[in-house]
Write a structure and sequence with these properties.
Length: 197
């Protein structure tokens, strides 16, 4: 059966399970993982960053069946899995700092439920740090943090400098936590960036 073109599809499992064409980039993923801990991926929009992050998620979570026939299939230790926290601001348009705070709260709540840990901290920044630490303690593995469309709330409000600045400051509270995390907590933290529109 002829393969389909994965136009607009950003989910690795859908591409692999539904017989879409896929250019194997898993070798690049392995190289990045071996060579560093923190990455900032800056490429134009529609360049495949979200799909690449989803590929990393599936790799770290150990979904081996999706990688059969790909380079990572035979070159990854499938006996080890890592807890993944993936945050994306790609859906919808946030128009205020309050809406951004609410979205971050929702994302953190989702990961607490999914990973089976809870946060006692009052602030989102504190909760995020607590989530990482408790996840590390629970699973005994380094935590993988993937951030997609990290600057979209800013870019969506670029014509309102006050709102864009407010968004930037609230996001900075979250992203600056990296400095408080010991390297043993996160082996890999790529952030999928957007270019200005």
């Amino acid at each position: 059966m002829r393969k389909k073109l994965p136009i607009g599809i950003q989910t690795f499992s859908k591409i692999r399970e539904d017989n879409y064409y896929y250019v194997d980039k898993t070798g690049f993923a392995l190289s990045l993982i071996d060579q560093g801990s923190y990455y900032f991926l800056s490429r134009p929009r529609r360049f495949g960053k979200s799909l690449f992050l989803d590929t990393l998620k599936e790799l770290f979570e150990g979904n081996r069946r999706l990688f059969q026939g790909l380079e990572a299939g035979d070159h990854w230790d499938w006996s080890v899995t890592y807890p993944v926290i993936r945050i994306s601001f790609g859906e919808g348009v946030l128009k205020s700092g309050g809406e951004l705070k609410e979205r971050i709260t929702e994302l953190l709540r989702h990961h607490q439920q999914r990973l089976g840990v809870s946060c006692d901290a009052a602030s989102n920044a504190g909760c995020f740090l607590e989530l990482i630490r408790k996840t590390h303690q629970k699973f005994g593995r380094r935590v993988v943090i993937l951030v997609d469309e990290y600057d979209k709330p800013i870019l969506d409000n670029i014509e309102s400098s006050d709102t864009a600045t407010e968004m930037r400051e609230k996001l900075r509270d979250i992203y600056s936590l990296r400095a408080q995390m010991p390297m043993s907590n996160s082996p890999f933290s790529p952030e999928s960036a957007s270019s200005p529109r």
